[in-house]
Amino acid sequence: VADANAMTSSAIDAASAEFPATAEPDTLVAMMIELDDLFDRIKLVEANGGQVPAAHPDIVPAADIARLADLLNPKRAGVEWPASHGLTPNDFEEISAHAAELERMSDANTPDAFSSRIQAISACCHACHAKHRN
Q1: How far apart, in whole angstroms, are the C-alpha atoms of residue 49 and residue 53?
Q2: pLDDT in tens, 64-111
Q3: How is the chain split into domains, by residue range?
Q4: Which fold has domain 23-132?
Q5: Alpha-carbon distance 45 to 58, whole Å?
C-alpha cells in the first residue's frame, strides 16, 4: 500500500464495469459456508437447552449434527485442498473427533455435555482460522 499510486482517469474509464451475477466459491469455501450455517443452527438448539427453538421448527438437530460431522471428516471424498488455503485433511482431525462425539451424543439428554462439545468445536474453528485465515 505504501508504494501504491492513484489510478489515472483513463485507466479507470478503460476498466470493465461488467461483473458476474454470482461468484462461485471453491469447494473448501463452499464447505466453510455450509459449516457456518449448520453451526449457527446447532448453537440455537444449544442456547435453548438442547431443544429445538419454537421460532425455528425447521431445525432437525440430529440431521444438522450428522451433516456437520460429515463435512468435518478429513477423509471425506470430494474436498479439494487447494494449496492457496494452506489447509490439509490433518487440520481437521481434532475438530472431526469433537463433531463425531457430538453426533454420538445427539440423542442423549445431556445439555452440559452438548454445550461442552459445541465449545470444543468452536475453539477448534477459532484456532484454525487464526492460523490459516486471519
Answers
A1: 9
A2: 999 999 988 877 766 666 666 777 778 888 899 999 998 888 766 678
A3: 23-132
A4: Four Helix Bundle (Hemerythrin (Met), subunit A) (1.20.120)
A5: 11
